[in-house]
Design brief:
With 646 residues, the protein is of the alpha/beta class. It is 15% helix and 22% strand. The longest helix has 16 residues.
């Protein structure tokens, strides 16, 4: 119905000799791109649609018939090729450190497509942090949106590397053409890191530390040339004051952990790098009616379609939303590890999407939730390489100086180096009345597939200069995530609670109870055999290995704390190592923690083999205590002894 109506409006306008400026070629007349930060697909959707549902967290249960994703299961969870297995983070672990997600480091983690070097090259804090993932009890809203609308499990960063390349590719499909070169950031005119835009008064003002793409085009210049309204709305873009160097954007907010985070992140505002779309003074629009439209002719500072996030709220309230809107959350709500979290991110997403769905533009709107880079989080899918690079220092995917993927190497478009891609797999959701409901789209797309959809939908033409908007050719777009068939059922609105991510009034998961805890064998030697072999001859040697047995009221995570029990003497109210001076003091037992085991148990009785080792370290002979615990549950203990195997 919408397709016929659009065609009729365009046809009538042609009879009058004009075409509506914002006329789209599909039923989507408003596109809102929410561009969040630093998440791999497996980090948010690796176990979709199966959530653990531990006590005290928002629960998630998938709809019957929910399709599977190319995610984490089986050996990928229990015998991963990396040096550590993936592990689940709950809502209490939502704030994490920021992994290494550089152009070179991500290629090294991919290890020629083996996907087995993430711990060595991207983990932060010298640990296995990059192997962590969340499920529907933390990224609850995103999982609910996937149930109602369309999720892609085949969306990739256009190239390897951090945030700025991801932003540049979204709006231009090209990270080449910047000047000047800056060591380890801009090499041979190609951006591989995140220097700020030259002249941005709220960015870096250090001479020689900023860059520009000059007169190069981007999707904004194409839309303006067609008379299509558009805008980029960035959190914290509105100045809070000024100093001798110009505008100061000093607003900040506390994240879920209480840390204060600046709202405006200069290298997350890609249009500032181009002469035709920059707003270096952060000038505000004169009125709500001006939002989305070109500045009037004349001298002086220009808005150039660059706005504060609050201006989108104003436009939504007045019904003056541009045809194409890019939304960049404030720093504490953009999902970036180290400064934001999925819990903070969820609040922005839900409040924004609830408002759009309650507005007059919803019937012809598509909201795209996309991400700029992976932050180095583990993902098990090796990306297809459609554009090669051979920089001797930074390209490392297929060995020193090589990034080309398996088979015949693809060309390096334009001869430009350091644009190897596609990069890591990222989440992508399309939320619209035209979404394919509760579907997973497997079409291989990248960040510039969003760009190409905009070009196609508003007939702007392409950008040229070897932009990824035509790599590969023909270029797949995100159109496969929608159903424009006349008469097709439309996806309904989905109002969610910003805190829980579930529909208002949804229950949290009930507490877990530990019903029992014991050891299969309370005295055993360190080894790998947890149970005796049937029919084996008796031996004087002690039995090898044991197993923990525990009963749970429902499925959930448990931790088993292993402590050695050492004799001691009481001194000043404390149990200390015996000394000659304390030989007559009251005896006591010291508990020394040796390590913790984390396991996921099912409802009912569970058995977990225990070889007498914590990681790779064998426990010494002696007495031990194991304590099992779960959030909100009463812990239980069991004693055992490790004996010599000889």
């Amino acid at each position: 119905m919408r397709s016929r109506l659009t065609a009729a409006l365009i046809g009538a306008a042609c009879l009058l000799g004009t075409v509506p400026a914002d006329a789209a070629t599909t039923p989507i007349g408003h596109l809102v791109v929410i561009y969040d930060e630093n998440v791999s697909f497996d980090h948010y959707f690796g176990t979709y649609p199966n959530a653990l549902n531990p006590a005290g967290e928002p629960s998630f249960t998938a709809k019957p018939g929910t399709p599977a994703v190319n995610g984490l299961s089986g050996a990928l969870l229990t015998a991963n090729p990396n040096s550590a297995n993936p592990y689940r983070l709950g809502r209490s672990g939502a704030l994490t450190c920021d992994n290494n997600h550089g152009y070179q480091a991500e290629q090294q983690a991919f290890d020629g497509g083996a996907m087995d070097k993430f711990v060595q090259f991207t983990s932060c804090g010298g640990a296995n942090t990059s192997m962590a993932y969340f499920d529907g009890n933390t990224v609850t809203a995103l999982w609910n949106y996937a149930q109602q609308y369309t999720l892609s499990d085949s969306y990739f960063g256009t190239v390897f590397g951090p945030s700025l390349p991801g932003h540049l590719n979204l709006i231009s499909g090209n990270t080449h053409g910047a000047s000047p070169d800056i060591a380890d950031q801009v090499v041979g005119g190609t951006v591989i890191s995140g220097p700020d835009a030259a002249g941005d008064e709220c960015g870096n003002r250090t001479p020689g530390a900023t860059i520009s793409f000059g007169a190069a085009p981007n999707i904004g210049t194409l839309l303006s040339a067609k008379g299509v309204s558009w805008g980029y709305f960035a959190g914290g873009f509105r100045p809070t004051g000024s100093d001798g160097g110009g505008a100061v954007c000093g607003s900040q907010h506390a994240n879920v952990g209480g840390a204060m985070v600046g709202d405006y992140v200069a290298h997350h505002e890609p249009f500032q790098y181009y002469d035709a779309t920059r707003n270096p003074t952060h000038k505000a629009p004169a009125s709500a009616a001006d939002i989305g439209h070109d500045d009037p002719p004349g001298g002086g500072p220009k808005v150039n379609h660059q706005y504060d996030l609050a201006d989108f709220t104003t436009a939504l309230g007045t019904g003056n939303v541009p045809a194409v809107s890019f939304l960049k959350p404030r720093g504490y709500q953009n999902g970036h590890a180290g400064s934001s979290s999925p819990v903070d991110e969820q609040r922005f997403l839900v409040e924004t999407i609830n408002a759009i769905q309650a507005s007059s533009i919803w019937p012809d709107t598509a909201i795209v939730i996309a991400y700029d880079d992976s932050d180095g989080w583990y993902d098990h899918v090796a990306s297809p390489i459609v554009n090669r690079s051979a920089n001797g220092t930074y390209d490392q995917l297929d060995g020193p100086g090589q990034c080309h993927g398996p088979g015949a190497p693809p060309p390096a478009a334009g001869g430009y180096q350091l644009r190897c891609g596609f990069g890591p797999r990222l989440p992508l959701l399309a939320i619209s009345p035209f979404s394919r409901m509760n579907q997973v789209d497997h079409t291989v797309v990248d960040q510039t597939s969003i760009l190409r959809f905009i070009e196609n939908n508003w007939a702007t033409g392409q950008l040229g200069d070897s932009s990824f908007d035509n790599i590969p050719s023909p270029k797949p777009t995100i159109a496969s995530m929608f159903d424009f068939t006349p008469g097709a059922a439309q996806a309904p609105k989905l109002a969610l609670d910003p805190a829980s991510g579930n529909p208002p009034g949804s229950p949290v998961t009930p507490p877990i109870s530990i019903l029992s805890f014991s050891m299969l064998r309370t005295s055993f030697a360190v080894g790998s055999a947890p149970t005796p072999i049937a029919g084996a001859k008796k031996s004087a040697k002690p039995k090898v290995g044991s197993a923990f047995r525990f009963g749970l009221s429902r499925a959930g995570d448990v931790t088993i704390l292993i402590q050695s029990l050492l004799p001691g003497r009481v001194s000043k109210g404390r149990c200390v190592t015996p000394t000659p001076k304390l030989s007559k003091a009251k005896r006591c037992t010291r508990a020394v923690t040796k390590g913790t085991l984390r396991r996921t148990g099912a409802a009912g009785t569970n058995s977990v083999n225990f070889s007498g080792r914590i990681g790779t370290k064998a426990l010494a002979p002696g007495s031990y205590r194991a304590t099992i615990a779960a959030p909100g549950a009463t812990s239980r203990t069991a004693g055992f002894k490790i004996v010599s195997g000889h």
